[in-house]
Amino acid sequence: MSTNIELHKVIDNWHKRASQVQDAHYDSGSLCKKWFNILGLSVVVLSALLGSIEVIIPVDNINPEIAKNVSGVISLLVAILAGIQMYLKLGQRSELHRMAGAHYGEVKRSLKTINITCEESEHKAIQEINKIEKKMDTYAKESPEIPHIILKKYRAN
Description:
- With 157 residues, the chain is mainly α.
- It has one domain.
- The protein is 89% helix and 0% strand.
- It has helices at 2-51, 53-56, 64-88, 90-120, 122-142, 148-155.
- The chain starts with a helix and ends with a helix.
């Protein structure tokens, strides 16, 4: 009886942890996607501005040297933002976090099933928990790192 109670505590504890990690990965994916969109839209807007700068500001109304400098600065910004977007791989990271969240969702469902199974066969429940532990270890190694700002939010709970 005492072992069964301990087993339920372990399952409940792991379920809570898997739930927090799942939510943290989904939040991380949303953050990556948000920044991916911000950088991408900035590149599109600045590129469009650069392409139409002569229409927006007629050359005869402004010093050609100033127009050239403005175009150069905008070109530089476009290159920097596009480079940052590619370097950070925010689109890919967003998808990896989504997949990691889905994996931890699977763990949560398995733990609920094990919690029910625990009443029928303690030995079978322990075997299943060992399998879940291996899965969680694998997911922890394969999952992208959760940003500290998001980790802080979930560690406080």
